[in-house]
Automatic annotation (TrEMBL):
Signal peptide: none annotated. InterPro entries: EF-hand-dom_pair, EF_Hand_1_Ca_BS, EF_hand_dom. It comes from Crocuta crocuta (Spotted hyena). GO terms for molecular function: calcium ion binding. This is STEA4 Metalloreductase. It is found in: Cytoplasm; Endomembrane system. Residues 83-118 form the EF-hand domain. Gene3D superfamilies: 6.10.140.900, EF-hand. The gene is Steap4.
Length: 156
């Protein structure tokens, strides 16, 4: 039967379906920075019906996985990020009970608790104030919050 047309251009290149999204924006160095990550995530549709990630959130995501402090991520880090984002998106969706595309501070408290964060009501209130607009936390802000909490606590 043979391979699909338009297959990998390089011998041994991974057959991972995510590679297409990654390769479309990665430079010849095989790395992506925050701008490229933003384009990649927008093109992939991982945000679902939510608005695309803003650049600052993409910078946070790169720094979360940037073990060599290069300001970029390779394909393996991208795959790790993809898995994390999918988990967080499912989580967000499960707590967005009214399907508004936002969670309120009470829903945020429940989401953080089920993710293993043990935070005081005052801490959750501060987080909600930082990441909400008019008392609502968007998917983009929820992801930024999760990245920051992961970085601060090491909880995953």
């Amino acid at each position: 039967y043979g391979g699909a047309p338009g297959g990998p251009a390089f011998p041994g290149q991974t057959q991972d379906p995510l590679y297409g999204y990654f390769a479309a924006v990665a430079g010849q160095d095989g790395q992506i920075d925050a701008d490229e990550l933003q384009r990649c995530l927008t093109q992939s549709g991982i945000a679902g019906g939510y608005k695309p990630f803003n650049l600052e959130t993409c910078r946070l995501m790169v720094s979360m996985l940037d073990r060599d402090m290069s300001g970029t991520m390779g394909f393996n880090e991208f795959k790790e990020l993809w898995a994390v984002l999918n988990g967080w998106r499912q989580h967000f969706t499960s707590f967005d009970s009214d399907r508004s595309g936002t969670v309120d501070p009470q829903e945020l408290q429940k989401a953080l608790t089920t993710m293993g964060f043990r935070l005081s009501p005052q801490a959750v209130n501060s987080i909600a104030k930082r990441y909400s607009t008019n008392g609502k936390i968007t998917f983009d802000d929820y992801i930024a919050c999760c990245v920051k909490l992961r970085a601060l606590t090491g909880v995953f």
